[in-house]
Amino acid sequence: MSNTLQTPELPKRFYADVTVEETADGFEIRLDGRPVRTPARRLLALSARAPADIVAAEWAGQGTHIDPATMPVTRLVNTVLDGVATDPAATRTDLGRYAETDLLAYRADEPERLVARQAEAWDPMIEWVAERFGARVAVASGVMHVAQAPATLEALRARLDAETDPFRLAAIHQMTTLTGSLILALAVAEGRLGAPEAWRLAHVDEDWNISLWGEDAEASARREARFADMRAAEILLVG
């Protein structure tokens, strides 16, 4: 008997027309005039027209089968409606933990060129946090835990408490988990950075290794897919 895992068969496309309808519930995605439901059977409706149009385009762009892997904005919206919107406090709490272990606080102690590259890329963002939130982020070299001051954690968590839109909150969460940095996610949310620049800053170490050892095709494909999720989050932030 073969132990090879079979890839689940994708559902066949069952609709011809995709539209966006403005209703009391928001901007609904309709397939052949019928409302779409999330995996938890909630109405697929967004609070803003622009991202709703992008979700509709993802549905319209499907071929003979529906492949969720090619629908990053739809997947994130489903996460919002089925999870974040029902319990935003849990999402804020999870994000608050990243304030304690932000990527930008952990620096290499060698080689010198990597140390300099990290400082050039990340120090401006540490300074931005100090100016924008009045919070000093502690930075250290090596792998030991860097304890952040209670005032710093409080300031960053207060910023998260100000996010009442579940779509924006979910977008910040997705960016944070993708980059390992709440600071970078907040910088995008505040308009300080665009998603491509935040993505570049999050991959200083990885790009350093690529410059030394070359790029792996599979790793590159995974990174490209993750960047699609990063752009999906930016779409919900911009609205």
Automatic annotation (TrEMBL):
Keywords: Chaperone, Transit peptide. The keyword Kinase does not apply. InterPro entries: ATP12_ATP_synth-F1-assembly, ATP12_ATP_synth-F1-assembly_N, ATP12_ortho_dom_sf. The keyword Lyase does not apply. One of its GO terms (biological process) is proton-transporting ATP synthase complex assembly. It holds the Pfam family ATP12. It comes from the Bacteria. Belongs to the ATP12 family. PANTHER family: ATP SYNTHASE MITOCHONDRIAL F1 COMPLEX ASSEMBLY FACTOR 2 (PTHR21013:SF10), ATP SYNTHASE MITOCHONDRIAL F1 COMPLEX ASSEMBLY FACTOR 2/ATP12 PROTEIN, MITOCHONDRIAL PRECURSOR (PTHR21013). This is ATPase.
